[in-house]
Fold this sequence. Notes:
Strand order of the largest sheet: 4-31-30-29
Radius of gyration: 27 Å
Mean pLDDT: 92
Number of strands: 33
Helix content: under 10%
Shape: elongated
Low-confidence stretches: none
Strand content: 35-45%
Amino acid sequence: xxxxTNDSDKLTSSSIWxxxxxxxxxxxxxxxxxxxxxxxxxxxxxxxxxISNDEGKGLSHSVVGNIIxxxxxxxxxxxxxxxxxxxxxxxxxxxxxxxxxxxPNSISHxxxxxxxxxxxxDIMWIGxxxxxxxxxxxxxxxxxxxxxxxxxxxSLPSNIIKHIIPYxxxxxxxxxxxxxxxxxxxxTSELLFQNxxxxxxxxxxxxxxxxxxxxxxxxxxxxGIFQYNFETNILNKFEKDTNSISNRNVYNIIEDxxxxxxxxxxxxxxxxxxxxxxxxxxxxxxxxxxxxNYIYEVxxxxxxxxxxxxxxxxxxxxxxxxxxxxxxxxxxxxxxxINEYGLYLSNSGEVYLxxxxxxxxxxxxxxxxxKKPYDINFTHLYANNKEIKVGDDTGILQKTLSKTENIxxxxxxxxx
Length: 416
């Protein structure tokens, strides 16, 4: 069932008079007041999630960032201005968590930029821009807010929480004033690396990763990548040679099944650190078919495939073939602008993407649609901007175009 809306990709009229299906499977519909519209059901591979002013009918805001799912088959969607949205995949319903100044049991801010789910305790940890850290106990639906308090060294170092990861029974927070170790039991925070000789560089922290060897990788915006060994308490800057990190701004860090590290950078493409070779390889627009040098996020999909989002769209990277397959507006990809950290691969294999105009989802294998041959029929011929008729004084057409096998033109006809 397709309803009429004001969107350009929906029905223009609810009164359909004629429907015909062509050889390529495209449906053409003649409407009473909306002209002729067409679509191909086989190519309708993207699910669009509506934006609404009414809770329960769609997303509360158009700008979507981080996405995560819980064990109850709910999708948690971070918006930058509309609070936290919850989409239930079973019931296809929406629930909003928005800041309410008159309600102490509400989320502290509507600009949500990070999220982490503690599945064992069924607790959602939510990082905001300017609202600090929020704890939502899903068993009681109760919020607890943690903020930065002037003069209190045990409070958060900043109210901007860019990234959240677990470490033992605590949380590590990437903030706009360093890396914090947060204790969920006491609600207190400890600012790390204050006394380290490199600690003065730790201001805007973008991303954190603890790898398979227990090493903490830290992305410091404008300064590059640092590594911290919890056992030796040694902090080092990650540099393998003078040109190892060609860009000091790293959005995202992951470790693949081969224990190699991948770095999503601003303006230097995708960096690959191969541990076995102790060497960094750069994938950029100069040496590969990657779509952009501004890579916002990369996730692993199976042992041989990476999914990534960039300033120019969505890409799939085959590691064995060293090949990027790109999807953007030029080949029908519906999101023109994808947001930072707006990529999520669900447990079922569905890909979710958040952008500045909402959210879509799709199955990655559905992108590999085989193109069908099209029957092209010529109906009109123009030479030098003049329509050619059968039997006219040009002598070009002796029969109708549909019955003409070839056409010979004199050199005076330069424009067709």
